[in-house]
Amino acid sequence: MAVYMVSQAEVKKLRPRMTAGLIFVAGIAVVLLGQLVLNMVLTQDAYHLRSLKLEKRDLNTQVQILQEEVDSLASPQNLADAANRLGMVANPASVLLDIENDKVFGKPKPASAANASWLPMRLWEPFLTFPRQRSQALKCLRVSKPRNQLPLA
């Protein structure tokens, strides 16, 4: 270790100035404060993102519920049930129309409530393509019993 003999004037020149130290400390404080602010902003955005994800999940659930209700109401069983509640009856004598040739195939007869019979479920099954729709339709038929309905065969 070497010891040098230096005058007081040279010692003052070599000593770090107070302003350099203050600038260094202020720089560190600004960097730490900026990091703290950035961390708080990112944390706040994370909470906002989580709330948006929860809202999206709830809205997707509501859309799925509404879509299932629409699918259920559009099923042939529910349409027939709604027609029955309005007083309509099924015509057992079905007639086919050929619009291009203006022909009628079959003998049309007016439908009446006395001789109307409900179509068995097995006639509706080809219209139900998905097992879930079929099970929902069967459940709806078991739960809701419209007035003037004859039992299913």
Outline:
With 153 residues, the chain is mainly alpha-helical. It has a domain at 118-153.
Describe what you observe in this structure.
The protein starts with 7 loop residues before the first helix and ends in a 10-residue tail after the last helix. The chain is built from five helices and two strands. The protein is mainly α and 153 residues long. The protein is rod-shaped. The protein has a two-stranded antiparallel ribbon with strand order 1-2. Strand 1 and strand 2 form a beta hairpin.
Features:
two-stranded antiparallel sheet, 4% strand, 2 strands, 153 residues, mainly alpha, 59% helix, single chain, 5 helices, disordered C terminus, rod-shaped
